[in-house]
From TrEMBL, chains A, B, C:
SUBUNIT field: Homotrimer.
Protein name per its UniProtKB record: Enoyl-CoA delta isomerase 1, mitochondrial
Molecular function (Gene Ontology), one example: delta(3)-delta(2)-enoyl-CoA isomerase activity
Protein's pathway: Lipid metabolism; fatty acid beta-oxidation
Protein function: Key enzyme of fatty acid beta-oxidation. Able to isomerize both 3-cis (3Z) and 3-trans (3E) double bonds into the 2-trans (2E) form in a range of enoyl-CoA species, with a preference for (3Z)-enoyl-CoAs over (3E)-enoyl-CoAs. The catalytic efficiency of this enzyme is not affected by the fatty acyl chain length.
Lineage of producing organism: Eukaryota, Metazoa, Ecdysozoa, Arthropoda, Hexapoda
């Protein structure tokens, strides 16, 4: 896979030197002092997870794994959207080959993030529905800015969140709350999310959210990194294994479902609504 | 299976027209306005779950599944008992064939209720021990009237709640609380049940309990029914599969246990106690 | 296995007659009135879990299982340490045969305690890191004296707590809290432990802690012991089975890990630190 990368040293007044790399749709900045990498999604306007953003996310996670970063903080360049989730255009009247590549990449990206050996935290600085919530709940810690919403709202769109979305959700929420929210396609406000444990802390803005993520990653300062990583992977082994063993089946299930006329019709109506909304603004 | 059914259109002053069907021991009323079915257990005096009530429950659940109801509310015609659980008379000095049919029917009824594609809620308008608690925790939501008790109290009777009773309980309660309560055979008051999450809300009376169940089912108004149903079934697949794969084993385990002389003796003493109690009243 | 045992009848002023037996490193006192056995670890200075203490614990658990005790309360003879966990000397530059026996014994002791048919409670009258926390969370109830700490801090020592430590932890804590604490190697104060549910109650001193454990075991007074024991074992079956099925693999995994030069070096540094600390005091 060919990707253009920009490697640069950024010196900012009053801040620590950062080593920064960028793919087309993500940037990675490693703080020189803390050794923590900030991975920023940058696909305007809503960080819709299309094939290319998912590829870039995976590459950036791999890079952070291999460059000895002390942690990974996932955030967004948008001021209102963390990620709007899977790009509907990938699923509506899909190209046969591309949709296979798209879903396979989503699997790969999740396996890399959920199973990452590095401490992970999400600075949720905007709305975070569906795939956005998946990314956030795949991290070990979540700090969220007020007045946004987060949740797996797939059923509202007529889609079924696959089993591993459910696993990420269940790693954070009690079963009773997780099942009901997923059935309802419920979006939680920042305050509601804090109350049920879907997020761990709130922060007034993105900067403060990142600071709190840095503080969380700092709790591992005295911990042996190898022992930590093996412990985390042992905790998540069953969830990761379940997808790894059933990747093909999971792909076929998705393709079958997404190609149902009723689902295509629903996605079409949804897209039409988005277009009208955009025209009005 | 032959069952007498009464189909009638009921028009009540000040209420919505209801389509109502009845088996011998259950009634189903579908509210014309909301499209929600109320399934009422009606086997006086305590809705003891015998073979026939379990059969009627299963038929009524199937009917609600197939008649396009928007939800199922399970309640009782008694003013003090939701369901007293499995009918001890089915287990004490049992007929060899009937007890097999009884347990197999219990399995079928649970599989239908726990795995129902329709949103389910229990309006718990009376005491709900053992099998009564199983029915309630197999629904997705529970509203309970004060001054009653609910719990899996099998160990108090010298019986072991099978693995799938445990699964229903665990779908609602944290493991630490669920295990301890099941070991103790603990009955929770309405207030205690609310505190630990065994129920979701309280209501002053049956009518209000049903209203709150209707409101819960209303949260699915904008949700795609197929996506909702597949999501729920995915959440419950492991529990349902476990019984489906082990039905014979589960039946034999129950038969072996219930036929132990010590268990039969215990049931006999319990029945004797019930008779004395009844005489005093 | 040869063990010297002392059997004696102890009559104390103002207390109930106790039947007491002792192994070299543990004592078992059965209260004549309550029928509850107190199992005291007595390997000064810190109840380090070496091969012999683990053997004696297993023998004492077996004894309590077979002498018809109504419950088991695990506590420590030390006034500041419940148990400091696995004896590092068993793992540092280990003898090839002894370390196999040591780990196999740890497995056996855990299987016996976690799977015990008798109601179990821990009176945690001192610090309880790592293996100490494993023993405490393998019981059904925990009462802890203030100003001590408890947790699985293996990652702080560069060690990975095996899957069954994790299972015991998860039987008590929600997944989100359990995973994070295990990754951090977090030690909880008595107050923090109460808040998250890692312990169930606090008590001002050991005597009061034991009283509260007695009260917990008393909640089973009206429960059929066989039904209770089968119910508990059904709850814990999956966890127990996982180790039983993978004992050899678990042993080899431990041996491989503990013999890593980096781990040996870490243990050496840790032991050196302990020696310096001891000299200063």
């Amino acid at each position: 896979m060919m990707r253009s990368k920009v490697l640069s040293l950024v010196a900012r007044a009053g801040s620590n030197r950062m080593m920064s790399t960028a793919t087309k749709l993500t940037t990675v900045e490693v703080n020189d002092k803390t050794g923590i990498a900030t991975l920023t999604m940058n696909r305007p306007p809503v960080n819709g997870l299309n094939l290319e953003l998912l590829q870039d996310l995976k590459s950036s996670i791999d890079e952070i794994e291999s460059n000895k970063s002390r942690g990974l903080i996932l955030t967004s360049s948008s001021s209102t959207i963390f990620s709007a989730g899977l790009d509907i255009l990938e699923m509506y009247k899909p190209d046969k080959d591309r949709i296979r590549a798209f879903w396979t990449q989503l699997q790969d990206t999740w396996l890399a993030l959920y199973g990452s050996s590095v401490p992970t935290a999400a600075a949720i600085n905007g709305h975070s529905p569906a795939g956005g919530c998946l990314l956030a709940t795949s991290c070990e810690y979540r700090v969220m800015v007020p007045n946004f919403t987060i949740g797996l709202n797939e059923t509202q769109l007529g889609i079924v969140a696959p089993q591993w979305f459910m696993a990420s959700f269940l790693s954070v929420l009690p079963q009773r709350i997780a099942e009901r929210a997923l059935n309802q396609g419920r979006m939680f406000t920042t305050e509601e999310a804090l109350k049920v444990g879907l997020i761990d802390e709130t922060a007034n803005n993105k900067e403060e959210a990142i600071e709190k993520c840095v503080a969380f990653i700092g709790t591992f300062a005295k911990v042996n990194p190898l022992a930590r990583s093996l412990t985390k992977q042992q905790f998540r082994a069953a969830d990761l294994q379940q997808l790894q063993n059933g990747r093909k089946e999971d792909l076929e299930k998705f393709l079958f479902f997404v190609n149902q006329p009723a689902v295509q019709k629903g996605l079409g109506i949804y897209l039409e609504g988005l277009k009208k909304k955009a025209k009005k603004q």
